[in-house]
Amino acid sequence: xxxxxxxxxxxxxxxxxxxxxxxxxxxxxxxxxxxxxxxxxxxxxxxxxxxxxxxxxxxxxxxxxxxxxxxxxxxxxxxxxxxxxxxxxxxxxxxxxxxxxxxxxxxxxxxxxxxxxxxxxxxxxxxxxxxxxxxxxxxxxxxxxxxxxxxxxxxxxxxxxxxxxxxxxxxxxxxxxxxxxxxxxxxxxxxxxxxxxxxxxxxxxxxxxxxxxxxxx
Length: 217
Known about the structure:
Elements: H1 3-12, H2 28-38, E1 50-55, H3 58-77, H4 90-108, E2 114-121, H5 129-136, H6 140-152, E3 155-157, H7 167-174, E4 180-182, E5 186-190
Antiparallel strand pairs: 1-2, 2-4, 2-5, 3-5
Helix pairs in contact: 2-6, 3-4, 3-7
């Protein structure tokens, strides 16, 4: 494999909000190809119970976006993500940037030419941690693979979940059966600008322990 290209893809696949190009349509054939790639991801017991709801109709996109906006408004009133753009603390400055871009996306969610909702068969009724991990672990890898495949083709997306507060209302809009669980909402569009850069992250070595918790190399 070309490690440079692979590493670049993995380190520059961002949640794209302000740089989504709402004026350019995304070809259905590209969405279909990326979904074929996504379904190569692992799933619990290899059940492959995933489904992907692709929404391009303007009225339905607006309806889904309105539910997202209601949930987002409550989220913002609750305080997060908080931050200060004028702060000397880089963490607060980054949080302010995220807040600003998240507000922009909430205002413009309906303008994304494609909305994709990754779904999984069943409902997460078993509260056991292993059951919850296995349930959502059967759709999240495929959703991330989808975002990577889109990114490789010059298409941005953003991982959002706030619409799940109104999951049943969104299900009614889109005819999603009651036994299907929605896992996320991805606004999808070509992105503007040239490229993305790796984001700031705490060095992995400071968060990685060997043989015993707290023991680093």
